[in-house]
What we know:
Blueprint (H helix, E strand, L loop, with lengths): L2 H13 L1 E5 H8 L7 H10 L3 E5 L2 E5 L8
Antiparallel strand pairs: 1-3, 2-3
Amino acid sequence: MSAWTDQIWGAVERNGVARRDCRDVAKYGGSWWNDGFTELVEAAKRRKYHVVKMGTQFVVFKDPIEVMC
C-alpha cells in the first residue's frame, strides 16, 4: 500500500487498535483503480487484524474483539 498505511499497521502493533476517517482511507489509501477500503480490509486480513466501520471511522483491532451489545 503506502507509507500512510504502514503508519496504521505500526499504530495497531504498538497500541492494539488504530482508527482512521473513511475519507482519509479513500484519499490516502486508495489509488486510481480502487477506493482504498478493499485494500485496507484485505491487508488487515493478511495480518489477521479485524476492521470495523463505525460511523465515519474505520477501526482496526489487533486482538479478537467481543461485541458487548
